[in-house]
Amino acid sequence: MAETGLNATAAALLGLLHEGQMTGGQLMSAAQSRLGPFWTMTRSQIYRELPGLAERGFVRAGKAGPRSSQPYAVTAAGKRAFTRWLGEPAGHDQLRNPLLLRAVFGEAAGPSRLAELYAAKAEEHTTGLASVRDQLKQAKQEGDQYAQAALEFAVMYHRAVLKWLESAPGR
Asked: Domain 8-87 is of which CATH architecture?
C-alpha cells in the first residue's frame, strides 16, 4: 500500500471532517473536544493544512460565509486517503514536555521556581484528569469503545504526571 504523505494534523482534520462540513474554527473546536485529551492542534496548524488538503483534492472548500469563514468538506479522495493513512505504521511517539525540559535544567532554575512550576502543573493535570474522566463517562454512556480506549490512556497519563510530581526533585 502506498503511503499517503499525510502528516498527523492533516489526517486528523480529514477524520474530523468525516462528521460533516466544518469551518476552520469549528474544526478547532472539534479537535479540542474530541482529540484534546491526547493530541494538541493549533489554529495555525489547521489553517496551514486546509489549503494543502484542498490542493490535493482531499477536501472541498465551500462558499465563504460571515466573517470570511469558509466551510470545508471531505471528498471521496480524502476519505480514501484517510483510510489508507489509518493503515500506515503509527511511527514513534514524540515526547515534548515543557515541564520536563525545565526540570532537566532544574539546578539553574532553582528550587523555588521549580516548586512554582510543579504546583501549576499539578493544578493543570488535576483539572485535566477531572475533565477527561467526564469525557470518559460520556463515551461509556454512548458506547464508543474507541473513544473510551483513548480517554483511558489520557486518564493514565494525567495520573502518571501527578504521581511523578509528588516526588519530583526540587519539590
From this structure: Orthogonal Bundle (1.10)
Helix (H) and strand (E) counts in the chain:
8, 2
Mean pLDDT of 13-17: 98
User: What are the grid coordinates assigned to 53, written together?
Assistant: 488538503
Which of 9, 112, 7 is closest to 17 using CA atoms? 9
Each domain of the chain, given as residue ranges in start order, spans 8-87, 98-167
Q: Say yes or no to pLDDT of 1 above 70.
A: no
pLDDT value of residue 2: 53
The region of weakest confidence among 7-16, 97-106, 126-135 is 97-106
- For residue 125, what are the contacts with CB-CB under 8 A and spacing of at least 6? 158, 161, 162, 165
